[in-house]
């Protein structure tokens, strides 16, 4: 019988012709997605076991929940009457 789609993907990532269900494999990822909400915790855990750099930082992609700003309560939006901060000449509301 042929390989499943997952077996084909894992075989390619492991640089092997085939892999089978039940095998323990160590595929090389094309990229690594990290949600911005777990970055601090992940850094803390990596520091705790002595890892101070990433093996392939060019493969890391940080994602965030894009709908956060769109669903922010109105109290989070600065009004035009707010004083300028950090060199801003004026502020605006959404």
The structural class is alpha+beta
- Would you report the number of β strands? 2
Poorly predicted regions are 88-94
| Spatial sequence of strands, sheet with the most strands | 1-2
Task: From the structure above, extract its key features.
alpha+beta; 94 residues; two-stranded parallel ribbon
Describe the structure.
The chain has 94 residues and is α+β, with helices and mostly antiparallel strands. It has a domain at 5-65. Helices cover 20% and strands 9% of the residues. The protein has 2 helices and 2 strands; from the N terminus they run αβαβ. The chain has helices spanning 5-13, 39-48, and strands at 32-35, 60-63. Strands 1-2 form a two-stranded parallel sheet. The longest helix has 10 residues, at 39-48. It is elongated, with a radius of gyration of 22 Å. 1% of the residues are buried.
């Amino acid at each position: 019988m042929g390989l499943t789609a997952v077996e084909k993907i894992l075989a390619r990532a492991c640089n092997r012709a085939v892999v089978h269900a039940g095998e323990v494999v160590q595929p090389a990822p094309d990229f690594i997605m990290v949600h911005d909400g777990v970055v601090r915790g992940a850094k803390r855990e990596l520091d705790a076991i002595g890892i101070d750099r990433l093996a392939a930082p060019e493969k890391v992609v940080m994602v965030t929940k894009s709908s956060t700003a769109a669903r922010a309560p109105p109290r989070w939006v600065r009004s035009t009457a707010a004083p300028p901060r950090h060199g801003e000449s004026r502020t605006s509301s959404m």
